[in-house]
Amino acid sequence: MIDAAELIGSGTGILFITLDSLRYDVARAAYDESLTPRLATLLPRDGWERRQTPGTFTLPAHMAFFSGFLPKLPQPEQPSRLWECRPPAFKVVPPRTFVFDAPNLLTGLAQYGYRTACVGGVTYFSRETPLGGVLPDMFDEDHWRPEFSSAEPDSTRHQVERALSIEATRTGPLFLFLNVSATHVPHGHYLGESTDTVASQKAALAYVDEHLARLITSLTDQRRWLIILCADHGDAYGEEGYHGRGIVHPVVMNVPFAAWVR
Description:
CATH superfamily: Alkaline Phosphatase, subunit A
CATH topology: Alkaline Phosphatase, subunit A
Oligomer: single chain
Helix content: 25-40%
């Protein structure tokens, strides 16, 4: 079990990656079919956990994540949370949970000397709209450019290069966040198609594999990191007539999750 309180208290680096819109069934199928061989060597022994997201689209899901509510297991009994906002006095927090006495995780980490950096992907991290500045404003620094968006077929490579450049200039503990856009629509181009499907999202994840593995191994070659990979929500591609996100449907609510120390 991860002792996030000890790790963060000692200044361990934190790499938090959200694979935007990635469904659990797609991530599991790609893992089982050996389409993500590099990530498979890095993930915990059993690969992806099936968890349930606290939000049905990007903005509420990430607001929940940064407030202490990561995806939960689909079962009554839950493991200790990695991080949590200081609760009322009557609630007892497990000793392994990092408790931040601040309105959000990013502000709380700053109190422990962390620099917080965001490498955005989808529109909610782009500052192209008023809502597009809400999440970036929570970080010490945020980075986005059109090459990071889902419309760019090589977006993850560009994002990883920026992330590595941020790490190269670190002078203290770093919380490094990436919102991977490649798994967000449009991703039909990974199969040479104009329609987005389960198959094209799987192909997008296969593309992502090399670049995220390079990021993780490059970071962990130098020092210890707490690594969290998950999706913020899934997407429907016609199941029971549903399309997209922002709906309470199993393919939207069930997301892949993994956390480990390396």
